[in-house]
Design brief:
The relative contact order is 0.07. A hairpin with a 6-residue loop joins strand 2 and strand 3. It contains 14 helices and three strands. Strands 1-3-2 form a three-stranded antiparallel beta sheet, covered by helices on one side. The protein is elongated, with a radius of gyration of 27 Å. It has 431 residues and is mainly α.
Length: 431
Amino acid sequence: MSSSLPAFRSFDEGFIFESTGPCIFTHSFSNNQLAALLNSKLTPEFLRLVAPTLDFQSGHVGTLPVIPVAENSQVLELNAATCIAKTRDDWDAYERSWDFQALPILAASSDVTPTLESMYAAWTSRNRDTVADVKRLEEENNRLLIDAYGLSVEMGPDVPIEQITLTVNPAYRYDVRLTEDERWTRFRQDTMRELVSYAVGCMLGRYSLDTPGLILASQGGTLAEYLARVPAPTFVPDEDNVMPILAEEWFPDDIVGRFREFLKASLGEQHLQENLRFLEDSLGKDIRTFFVRDFYKDHVQRYKKRPIYWMFSSPKGSFNALIYMHRYRPDTVSVVLNKYLREFQAKLTARLATLSATEVSEAASTKEKTAARKEADQIRKMLTELSDYEHDVLYPLAAQQITIDLDDGVKANYPKFGAALKKIPGLTADE
């Protein structure tokens, strides 16, 4: 079902299919040759004749004329195989792939001491080459097939850049109404968001800078298990699987502080400020603002409303703490409550006492007293919010020692924590 061009993908053994995603089994031709034909410019034209609506049925595809291209069969075979390999590499470059190994941009530059900007430049240069290669191969396949079918008068082999369906191709990935500069601006922003996402994965033990692929991906994974897999890590993940995301740096494992450590570990300390500046310019905001306001929304969208990192969040967002669901344990809520929420309340109370002293101090200026009074009022509101969150939500939840089963999935497990976690609209069936 499509209002766009029909698309056909090759997949390996072990996959299943059904009526809305049918499959072709071929005996007379190789899969690669058939893939070359089905994804050529010929197939959309043929299907328009037999399926003029938006619905492509297996019967329609079954009527397509298949002419052997004996003379150039090896070229078609190799071209299609190369396109499939490059498309697979493109898919595997992103976290959503089962076979994701590491973030490619971190290995894109050959400089001895690369900066994030030079890595991004090398990454985009490689992407341009990949897109150009796939475009060239698809156009060569089109030319060979058009000639074989005797349709060179009716159509040409050219493929618009927007139809090269690679995620690293901004012309395909973004709205066609955007200018090329606007597309590349979006691509740069999204690439930095992907870097932040990968960094959080390293902070929580899902990934490692030293070992490719998933590290902690089983239920209840611990730091000890991580160190068994990665004995001398360049970057050590969070020990208790709880990272606070607050408007200021109140804790040693504050997520912004941890992100700075990640940049040092992955890119070196020499260019830390330069790298952070490039990242923030790309995001369009400072990194703390991104974490507090945008990160979780981005994560939920990235994982299609099935987040693997969960955000404990008070009603107005004064307190936020991130955990990795695969490392969740029945005492995790108690850790959030006792080690972070209550400690945060204690720190705020101490800060409030300091501000109250400033308000009545004869040595303080009128400006200092006004600023202290304004901040004190804000903290009092925060403490009220956090007290209610503790009493009504987090404390009763911690007492339950809830267990989860990863096999049940996010949709079944996330709602068990109710108002303790940041609400995800549309997650449950009744929404």
